[in-house]
Amino acid sequence: MISPDANDLQDLVRQLHREGTAWVPCGLGSRLDWGPPLQDCTPVSCAGLRGIIEHKPGDFTISVRAGTPLLEVQEALAPHRQWLAVDRPWGSQRRGAGSLGGLVARGLAGGYRQRYLAVRDQLIGLSLLRADGTAAKAGGRVVKNVAGYDLMRLFCGSWGSLGLITELNLRTLPQPPIRRGLLVQGSLAELGALSQWLLGSSLSPERLDWWSAPLAALAGLEAAPLLLIGLASISAESLAEQQAAIATHSRLPLRQLEAEALESLLACARDDEAIPGAGRHQPGAPDDGPEPEPAWLLRLGVSPDQVPQALASPELEGLAIDLAAGSGVGLAWTPAGPGARADLRPEAVLRLRLQCQRLGGWLTVLHQPSGHAVPAWDDAPSRALIEQVKRQFDPKLQLAPGRLPGVAKP
Ligand SMILES: Cc1cc2nc3c(=O)[nH]c(=O)nc-3n(C[C@H](O)[C@H](O)[C@H](O)COP(=O)(O)OP(=O)(O)OC[C@H]3O[C@@H](n4cnc5c(N)ncnc54)[C@H](O)[C@@H]3O)c2cc1C
Fold it and tell me: Burial letters for 373-404: b for 16+ Cβ neighbours within 10 Å, e otherwise?
């Protein structure tokens, strides 16, 4: 891995281009190994691009260098009672939350998407280096922006395949003064009815997450599916009114969680201690024992009204699953611990992909046991267009070889 100083980065990229060297933009390297395997290439780290350039509390905007850790930004915003409305990424306990550049490049959001939308919606501008070292900018620094090609959103979820993000301008939000969680357990049908009502109501929960029975059990709750409702407001009265409205419509008992209990429950849903051996695949991780156990980490999405049906799929039995009800998108993984199911076969994952597609969605393999080679994703219908865009940005096809979102085998 090369970790250049900010001042040397552009020269380095120009040199790599002249030489035709294969390389991959990299943040802090916490999840570089997840997704399609990279062909031989040099990671170029953004760890040297660190720090907040400017925070304008009155404008609710912040400009940061791409290698700045997410947690550093949240800590800097906290005294202003502001935050970036994104979840801590899955696996943060073991791998760290990563950099903001990596977060945008992966483009994955969690349950807060219900109220605050996805990472791409928090982005108001970015700076980047193209494969030949040319510096470019997209968007701006203010929330109201000029028109033009929307390069910013092209780079959200680009997985390092189009260029290296150097700076980001993001929207910040005021921290809600009061937060509370409601937890409901029951059958998939009962929870489905409550979720559909809530999504169609005038209430605006911060999050509405489906958990599978195994994830509930991992968190020390009854092993039954659950809905986790996150409420936030500026006043206790409004929060009580929302809670009362939900209680009136729920045929199931609601368990109330104060902010701290809600936060520790959310930490359970993103703890990668649950995938044995995951850290072993990190570049440079020590090889200190027998083959790690099988471990799958899947990103999946279905049409929101089809979530109960998806959760009933036999292939998902025994997996820890956390899906956002409003988007139908989330993660499924093989949990660790006694009685945990570790026998998920590649054929079952492929069947599951078909099932997600039938239910209006898709499935991406982020991590799989060594020895298996399930394609991370299928070809998108727009494959030809994606490849044309790739050639425009990276004519020598130097960046992230082996990895192009929407193309099964680049
Ligand atoms: C709720 C939630 C759940 C998430 N779950 C997952 C998950 O399960 N798996 C996962 O992989 N990610 C997940 N993410 C995204 C995760 O946050 C990022 O992958 C992580 O922050 C990357 O941090 P890093 O700096 O270590 O990046 P790295 O691990 O170094 O790189 C991650 C990816 O981003 C690209 N990249 C990094 N920096 C840049 C840059 N400056 N310019 C261009 N490309 C760049 C790399 O090429 C690579 O494809 C999730 C995010 C959220 C919000």
Answer: ebebbbeeeeeeebeebbeebbeebbbbbbbb
For 277, the 3-state DSSP assignment is coil
| Residue to mutate (ligand 1; options 106, 297, 368; most atoms within 8 A of CB) | 106
Ligand 1 atom nearest the C-alpha of 331 is: 8
Q: Which residue has the tokens 């695949």?
A: 281
Range of the domain at 89: 6-174
Strands, sheet with 52-56, edge to edge from the N-terminal-most edge strand: 52-56, 61-65, 164-171, 123-129, 135-139
Q: DSSP state, 370?
A: T
Whether 134 is in a domain gets the answer: yes
Q: Is residue 374 part of a domain?
A: no
> Per-residue pLDDT tens for 227-245?
999 999 999 999 999 999 9
Distance CA 73, CA 96 (A): 14
Least confident of 110-114, 160-164, 333-337, 349-353: 333-337
- Ligand 1 atom closest to Cα of residue 128: 42
10-47 pLDDT, tens per residue? 999 999 999 999 999 999 999 998 999 999 999 999 99
Q: Which of 35, 83, 140, 119 is nearest to 376 (CA)?
A: 35
pLDDT of residue 145: 56
Ligand 1 centroid to 298 CA: how many Å? 15
Examine the domain organization and report whether 158 and 194 are in the same domain. Answer: no
The last residue of one of the domains, among 146, 174, 202, is 174
Residues in the chain: 410
